[in-house]
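Data deposition worksheet. Section B asks for the primary sequence of the deposited chain exactly as it was used as input, without tags or linkers unless they were present during the calculation. Section C holds the resulting structure in token form. Section D is free text for depositor observations; keep each observation to a single sentence. Incomplete worksheets are returned to the depositor.
Section A, Depositor: J.P.
Section B:
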Amino acid sequence: PHEATLRQHIDVDHTIVASDAGGIGDPIVLEATAPGLVSARVSVATSIDPSDAVLEVASRFGSEPVFFD
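Section C:
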């Protein structure tokens, strides 16, 4: 199918909530569903603490080994 046709079948439901309580924001939750398949949900932790910024974390753990399950 054409890309534009496929896009018509994507439903996006979202709520954006800003939080600064203790530097921890609400998690980003993604859910994917498709007819005939089991749905999948991923929750991504968020933070507004500057020490959790990408470059700060990379500088602390850049030489550590990375493992994927």
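Section D:
The first strand starts at residue 24 and ends at 32.
The beta strands are 24-32, 40-47.
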